[in-house]
Amino acid sequence: MIKIGKRAVWLFGAIAIVAASPAFAGDSAPVDRNTLWNIVNLKCLRHLTKSEAPIPCDSVDVSAGWDRGLALLKDRIGRARLLAIPTRVVTGIEDPTILAAEWSHYFADAWAVRDNLNWRLQRKLSPDAAAITVDSRPRREQDQLSFAIDCLDEGVADTLAANAATIGDQWAQMKVALKGRTY
After folding, report:
1. Fewest CB within 10 A of the end CB: N or C in the chain?
2. Domains and CATH numbers, the chain
């Protein structure tokens, strides 16, 4: 019989506990699907109500009303990528709220702030060098509508320019793939 001391048992137990912790698990911890809303509501808007800078947001525009505003937040991805996030809960692009005429301003307002990319990049972008994207329900990780505003990938810009004649003014599936995906 092998004799194991108390110290060895304690050490084995500690290793087992650490190995079972989420940091060592194969799957990462679940994503909080309300992170964006919590940042806007609990941080940016809260600072704004105290007449402070809306940190961590770059800006918050509530001139049309607190529930009709848009917060601009630097995304953790990329050098200049920004997220434009409504100041009210809007789950996504399919949310019936944004289909109502009085709420349809979100896309236009998000597009209007694309000049903030110039400030982040410290250079002037041509008008067609910026893009705005919205994740569809199956692709998104957040239950809060957000518009990602960023520089248009050069390959995507070239493909769009080459196929401009086939792109209409109505929503339709594109006839060409962009970076291997169809939209």
Report:
1. N
2. 35-166 (3.30.428.30)
| pLDDT tens, residue by residue, 145-157 | 999 999 988 888 8
CA–CA distance, 23 with 11 (Å, rounded to integer)? 19
Determine contact, residues 141/31, Cβ cutoff 8 Å: yes
Rounded distance between C-alpha atoms, residue 121 and residue 20, angstroms: 43
Tell me, what's the pLDDT at 17?
A: 32
How many whole angstroms separate alpha carbon 18 and alpha carbon 62? Answer: 46
As a three-state string, the secondary structure of 4-46 is: CCHHHHHHHHHHHHHHCCHHHCCCCCCCCCCHHHHHHHHHHHH
Give the burial string for 32-61 (b: 16+ CB within 10 Å, else e): eeeebbebbbebbbebbeeeeebeebbbbb
Task: Output the DSSP codes for 91-108.
Answer: --TT-HHHHSGGGTHHHH
Residue of 29, 7, 5, 9 whose CA lies nearest to 17: 9
pLDDT mean over 32-42: 94
